[in-house]
TrEMBL record:
It comes from Halobaculum lipolyticum. GO terms for biological process: carbohydrate metabolic process. The keyword Thylakoid does not apply. Residues 40-179, 210-353 form the SIS domain. GO terms for molecular function: glutamine-fructose-6-phosphate transaminase (isomerizing) activity. The chain holds residues 245 to 604 of 604 of the full protein. Its main location: cytoplasm. It catalyses: D-fructose 6-phosphate + L-glutamine = D-glucosamine 6-phosphate + L-glutamate. This is Glutamine--fructose-6-phosphate aminotransferase [isomerizing]. It is found in: Cytoplasm. One of its GO terms (cellular component) is cytoplasm. Homodimer. The active site is at K355 (for fru-6p isomerization activity). Keywords: Aminotransferase, Cytoplasm, Glutamine amidotransferase, Repeat, Transferase.
Amino acid sequence: ERDGFDHYMLKEIHEQPAALERAINGRITDDNRVHLEEFPPGSFADVGEVHFLSCGTSNHASVYAQQMLRDRGVPAYAFTAGEYATTPAPVSDDTLVVAVTQSGETADTLASLRSANERGARTLAVTNVVGSTAAREADDALFIRAGPEIGVAATKTFSSQVVVLALLVERIVEDVTGEPSAEAEALLSAMRELPSQVDSVVRESTAASLANRYAERAGTFFIGRGVAYPVACEGALKFKEISYEHAEGFAAGELKHGPLALVTPDTPVIGVFSGKHDTKTLNNVEEVRSRGAPVIGVAAETSDHVAGAVDEFLPVPETHPDLSGVLANVQLQLVSYHVADLLDRSIDKPRNLAKSVTVE
Ligand code: M6R
């Protein structure tokens, strides 16, 4: 069943190239435009702002899409669903509410989706499960086609969510502004290469030997900006979820507003770089290195400016900056997996956690 892999998580990490092929299959035209069968051009012409509702890993994919929409001039806000269910943001006629949920059954996400439905917002579910409650209750559904995910830790569903949300982002921007975004063609062309690039990260990663050197520290911090910010948060979530070691993800700029007090030579800092705001993140790297913290940089293999400024370097293939987070996240998945394996944790079923959280 696990096809020779020690854990479903590792199997599912390896399944990401195939999952991504399915996610994009038929959704990019020959001239690099978005083609979503469910949403022909103009479907989102009336959208003024976008709210994303989701939990955990799905929330990180939502923040990723939020950053992309904002970069392209469309107001977007990612909310944690549990908060939105009790303290919802006001919606108006032009608000599109997108529930992002792998299972389509997460109680907090369903509660927030219902609140949006009751208040008359237009709703859309982005999910992996056809026929799930979210897919049925939202006005529309868009499927990520990741295939079944057994490990409690979300891996391939995150990658597939980000890619499908990136397609949705480009559809929305084109509909709202009347033309493809300035990034669309390059992004969609790069997206075609993403499955094989993920495959090369999985095959060539040196995360296992790095894990040996950095397991069992006082804490591990993850930082990033722009789309690398939710990837840092996702890296930290995965790390704590399966290794049971303390980890936190921060927006790189926030470090100096408090968390820096925790930084010591025993707290490795993992910096995620998208290629867009690297100089600023490198300033934050300097702040932690001067406190003696070892820094691990995850960036495009061509990023000499990063490689030369960190203690350890985990390279990923060069891609469009807005897709770089998908590749960086695969490195982070492998770091967490190998640390947890080294510590002999229950990787596929971490203590206290369930795959689908059906209570609020
Ligand atoms: O099924 P969902 O995407 O709605 O699940 C939301 C979270 O419970 C989930 O992403 C959780 O954070 C992951 N299992 C963490 O790896």
